[in-house]
């Protein structure tokens, strides 16, 4: 692609680094910004810069947050004895949108995937174990994607957590195998949370 401006070319190259964005889409986005008011573009730039520089991860659950402890973990209205274990922030948002869950979360930051070189030590597993040691937790819900990586992660976590005297459940499999949690419709996901089953039962 030939560019009439080096600045334009550099901007397109940066946008094209975003997932799912090719050069043509990147060019369309850059040209769109060029047609906006300077103040609007500066606001956009400032929002992205502040996101990268000021965003935090909750010290308790590792969810993305504006503060050291996220709003969910800090809320006295949540059931802190119920922890839903998820892969990342997108899954927290998906479950929150169902309005069917009132516990707290634990964000692993990924799934065990030997093919990608991701092992348990790369995830927030030890901090989950510490939460169970230090708090009065009555139930853990595994809400991970119905994929090989998700099942591998759940199997590993179950082995690590079964020493504790708590209920361990997993969301009901109204979700097709291979399905990513963030793409499941809210009704199906909500029902899967409500109709969760003991983890041992899900193995049969």
From TrEMBL:
Zinc finger residue extent: C4-type: 58-73
Homology family: Belongs to the RecR family.
Function: May play a role in DNA repair. It seems to be involved in an RecBC-independent recombinational process of DNA repair. It may act with RecF and RecO.
PROSITE patterns: RECR, TOPRIM
SUPFAM superfamilies named in the record: Recombination protein RecR
Example GO molecular function: DNA binding
A GO biological process held by the record: DNA recombination
Stored Gene3D superfamilies: 3.40.1360.10, 6.10.250.240, RecR Domain 1 (1.10.8.420)
Keywords carried by this UniProt record: DNA damage, DNA recombination, DNA repair, Metal-binding, Zinc, Zinc-finger
Protein name listed in UniProt: Recombination protein RecR
Native species: Mucilaginibacter achroorhodeus
PANTHER family reported in the protein's UniProt record: RECOMBINATION PROTEIN RECR
InterPro entries: DNA_Rcmb_RecR (IPR000093), Rcmb_RecR (IPR023627), Rcmb_RecR_Znf (IPR015967), TOPRIM_dom (IPR006171), TOPRIM_RecR (IPR034137)
Toprim domain mapped to chain residues: 81-176
